[in-house]
Amino acid sequence: MISFKQIFDFYIRSSIHVALSVYALVRMTHYMFHISADQPMANFAFFGTIVGYNFVKYDVLARAQKQQMRNELKIIAALSFCSLVAVGYYFFKLQLVTQIVSVGVLGLTLLYTLPFFPNRKNARNWAGVKIYIVALCWVGVTLVLPLLNAHVPLGFDFYLKCIQRFILVFVLILIFEILDLANDDPHLKTVPQQIGVKRTKIVGLLMLIPFYFLELLKNNFIQEQMIVNGILVVALSLFLAFANEKRSKYYTSFWVESIPIFWWLMVVFF
User: Fold this and answer.
1) For 162-183, how does the pLDDT look when each residue is reduced to its tens digit (9 = 90+)?
2) What's residue 117's pLDDT?
């Protein structure tokens, strides 16, 4: 009999949870820029995240073929294939400019995974680069693509939100890097590897200050958003402060990745 833990682990390992986080950020973008529900764009981001993340996580295993695929991996592969079909379907429902830019984001993802240059590893293994590539991909998918698809003018608020979104994702990744410190290759030169855990936490906490106060510079400032963002900053600060190498894998893979979902739900309900 399949246990709840097995179902929950599959939910995490198949990238459905992280895809929901991306979906939530796309919907946050719709809310912030007063875009009527663009479901094809949100669905494209959701299914694209499942395909992208599973490709990044399981590509090496699939290509090496050093062991027979377990049943769970077979199901994940089937889910990824179905998600790829859904991505293709929703891709042709997007505006042309959105399609072009999404191909660019795909290229960045492939650069992160596959070794394109002779005698060089993929970008995932380039020293100190990983965190910036991931953050830029998230900004592109959750902010740039939805605005392009809705033909929203890319004015001052857009650049403001790009900075905020980049900071948000950057801080989330810092928490992952702290927990992965014992297992990461020293040559990756992650932020905790270079400056230590304590200083990494300080950097993350300091970055949340501009994230919060940049909201005041918006052309259409909403006071209630400051309250929601304040709760988000407190939650992020606590997760960052209590992060360490001994934490359970669920600390990041579920709880930390739930923060964007929590942020969106605060807007939906309050």
Assistant:
1) 999 999 999 999 999 999 887 7
2) 47
pTM of the complete model: 0.89
Looking from the CA of 167 toward its CB, the CA atoms found within 13 Å total 24
Per-residue buried b or exposed e for 73-102, using 16+ beta carbons within 10 Å of the residue's own CB: beebeebbeebbebbeebbeebeeebbebb
Q: How many residues does the chain have?
A: 270
Query: Any residues with CB less than 8 A from the CB of 12 and at least 6 apart, and which?
Result: 250, 253, 254
For range 122-151, the mean pLDDT: 82
For residue range 239-251, what is the model confidence (pLDDT) as tens digits?
999 998 888 889 9
Total Cβ atoms within 10 A of residue 11? 14
| Range 5-14 contact pairs with CB under 8 angstroms and sequence separation of 24 or more | 10/72, 10/75, 10/76, 12/250, 12/253, 12/254, 13/72, 13/76, 14/50, 14/54, 14/75, 14/76, 14/79
Q: Which of 9, 5, 22 is nearest to 76 (CA)?
A: 9
Q: Where are the domains of the chain?
A: 10-269
Per-residue buried b or exposed e for 202-217, using 16+ beta carbons within 10 Å of the residue's own CB: ebbbebbeebbeebee
